Amino acid sequence: MPRSRQLLQLRWGDMDAYRHVNNVEVLRLLEEARVRAFGVPAADGSAPMLATGMVVARHEVDYLLPLDYRPEPVAVELWTGRVGGASFEVRYEVLAPGPEGGGERPHVRASTTCVSYDFAAGRPRRLSDAERARLAALADGPAGTGAPG
Fold this sequence. Notes:
6 strands; six-stranded antiparallel beta sheet; about 20% helix; Thiol Ester Dehydrase, Chain A; alpha+beta
């Protein structure tokens, strides 16, 4: 399956004193894309992954180009990388026209480690077969690697 592509609107208030989108706001863009991808029921009608319990354990962000405010939405593409027993990696690219215009260019590359979580028990839980299938459908790259294809 191809990457999930979410078009997200920037807000004027997302900018910092340096006139580009603040690093905290970039994490909010990634969060919004992740919620849109995992907050909806699966194609088979099963519960959204967010509803079954999922927490963030780690973020890693590479800022490639300044992301300036623009009235047009930016694209956040996401796909899954490594999948373990209870955790999985979500990878992202934030795409927008470059500083001199032209086609889309990656401004941010990032990854988030998410952990499936049992809130009642207060601990991580194993990913279900249905969750694994959903994550596999979002894989982009050679099977099992999550590397860009």
